[in-house]
Design a protein that fits this description.
- There is one protein chain.
- This protein has 76 residues and is mainly α.
- It contains three helices and no strands.
- This is Toxin-antitoxin system HicB family antitoxin.
- InterPro entries: CopG, Ribbon_hlx_hlx.
- It comes from Thiocapsa imhoffii.
Amino acid sequence: MSTLTIRLPDDTAERLKSLARSQGMSVNTLVEELSAQALSAWDTENHFRALAATGNLQDALAILDRLDAEERDAGP
C-alpha cells in the first residue's frame, strides 16, 4: 500500500472530514471510495473511447441501452 500526501484548501479538508464523519468512516476510507469511483468512471470512458475507435457504433449503443435498462430496473 502507498502513502500519498495531498494539499487541500482548509475548507475542503474540513468538509471532507465532516462528510467522512457523517458516513461513519475515516477520511482515508472516504478518499479511497471516492478514488475508486473516479477511476471506475475513467475506465468506463476509456472503454467507450476504444469502442468508438473501432467504429462499431451498434455495439456501443447496445451497451448504453443495457445500462439504461439496468438503471431503470434498479429504481430509485
